[in-house]
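User: ok so my PI wants both of these folded by tonight, can you help

Assistant: No problem, let's get them done. Here's the first:
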Amino acid sequence: MQKNIKDLKTEGEIEDFMTEPTPGLIELSKKLKGSVIALGATGKMGMEMTEMLLRADTAAGVKRRLGVASGFSNPENEKKLNSLGVETFKGDLSNEEFVASLPEAENVFFMAGFKFGSSGDYTKAYQMNIIMPYICGTKYRNSRIMVFSSGNFYPHTLVGLEGPAEDSKVDPQGIYGWTLLGREQAFKIIAQKHGTKSCYYRLAYAQHFKYGVVVDICKAVMASDEFKITFPCVNLISQRDANDAALKCLSLCENPPRPINVSGPAVPVKEIVERVAKVMNKKIKITDSAEKSALLLSDNFAEKAFGPYRDGTNDIVDAIAAYISKGGKDWNKPTGFTSVNHKY
């Protein structure tokens, strides 16, 4: 019987839960031909996404070459991947010689990029978010490429209305938003030149026990008797559902590239704070936001294409609040979601 996210007690149960493949992903594994390489897959999502694909392959009885290329700033990530039977390639993905040395693969996940600090380092932002994608995309021009992107460059939406869909106009704010749009354009140029099939995975606010908007809110509620809301509403999706959708996006690569929003439902921040406080049995004074709009996404297409998400928003909030309140360790990586202008 499938566990509910609220039933998890140990670190091992959390890891197993977060990497559990859906039946739909297992079926996709059976149909997916060829090897897979994930570029930059050692961040907040990449490690678990890789393990989820490995588990789907195992359940499907499929043996394929699976590799991860990264700088591996944390050597433990490389050791863990190797222990799972994943090949690793250590190097700088902005270095053309290193990228040229990587093995060919029929299927590619591009996950590398630069967010926090991008507004203070334009050169690095352009190098990591535009030039590096072009180098990697050119290398794998004959492959199917799933490109990690973001909903960051969509315009804000009045709370209560449906957020932008994939064909909505964009309105980047700050260097991060502009260079993310540049990343997509780099792969679009490659598609135009070489006929490459790809898609853009535009994600908003994936939630993990150790990272995410809900973790930030939980820590703030624990630290103070007051909570000032600066951003009125957010999309919430569990990281395992976000990774499941990311892997399934590989089946929707097209030319020209197809954008795909993945976000989960929009939830008022005030409701999240109140729910967290209830789980923690704490009284808290909440000051409402003066903002009437928020960066929200509509992911109707993804839900129809991939099926309903497994984890409900209330269960996500309850589970993470219980974990943090009991001293659960997080990754200490604030999301910065309260930055209304999104200039990271």
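One down. Here's the second:
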Amino acid sequence: MTNKATVLIIDDSLVNLIFLQGILTKHSFNVISANNGERGLQLAQQTLPDIILLDIIMPGWDGYETCRRFKQNKKLSNIPILFLSALGELKSKVKALQVGGVDYVSKPFQEPELLARLETHLELAYLRKNLECEVANQTKKIKLLFDALQLSYERAQQTSNLKTEFLRKISHEFLTPMNIVVGMTDILIEDTELTKEQQHYAKTISKASKQLNAILTNMLNFAQQFKSEIKQVITEFQVHEIIDSLLKEFSPIAKSKSLQIYTDIEKSLLYMPLRGDKQGIYNVLNKFLDNAIKFTENGKILIHVKFEKQLMLFEISDTGIGIPPKQKDHLFEIFSQVDNSSTRPYDGMGMGLAVAKMLTENMGGEIHMKSVLSQGSCFWIKVPLEIVR
């Protein structure tokens, strides 16, 4: 590695220059020399030596000043500089290192010592240069990988946005005709004379259309949440309005399964004027109650409402099949279902609870659950509501 290495000697003594040049040439170094600092700086800029031997006591720039000039030059600053001097006191050696020298060899020097120090610092300079090149190469590779990752992320984000927008639009477009199907089927059942067979068909259509309507609503809510389009609609309301609507919708369904829905609401809350996202609360409780009826074959369902630590607690518990422990941690994730098999007896896409979580958090609330397998489940939310004075 030191073969053909170029050494620049800067010394005002012609005797020292000839002596050093003879030693280094004998050991296969390329040697250039200068008798003062300014000339040495000029030669270095032209030839870029691998290492510099620098005397301290010289006319014009002394060795310290010459070293400073080299270190100020961006092109030359990494070239190792070894000081050669008869100044043996400690402060001279310390100053030489402070201005940027890598070593200090006292005159008169020994040839083996000088050569050993040259070899060492050339090796260190070589390793440093290779390390810097390797770091630069790795940095370049990392930047290329980062750019590729960024591009991949942007493309994935664009794809995700397109999918979400498609989901939002198609859900919105489907909801309009589905609402008409639901409404007209209800009118057909309630206001039209039908035979028992026709009643059966109409009710089957009504049930299926409401299920599909709920799925589309979940899809729309999910897409809107990801596009940050879900907005709270703050209105004044009373708790009984939400509970009455839930009972009106779900009591007939519960009755068809011989289930009874009970309520336990603090009397002071029933008609208390409140301000908050009434529709958001209703939508969450709707999903809780729908699941409670779906997964309960025997027993009862309880709707419980109370104030707890400045938050309104809405809780729905059942005596249904319960939830396996391994499923609890993923229950509020999108498309999560207790039973994912193709032969599962319960319908649904596993979006209801994920949407309920989104809606609750959008209101600044909390959502929780507890369940015991084969004994039942309890779902509840705590949401901040303003009491209207």
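Residues 235-387 form a domain with the Heat Shock Protein 90 fold (CATH 3.30.565.10). Residues 338-349 have pLDDT under 50 and may be disordered. Good luck tonight!
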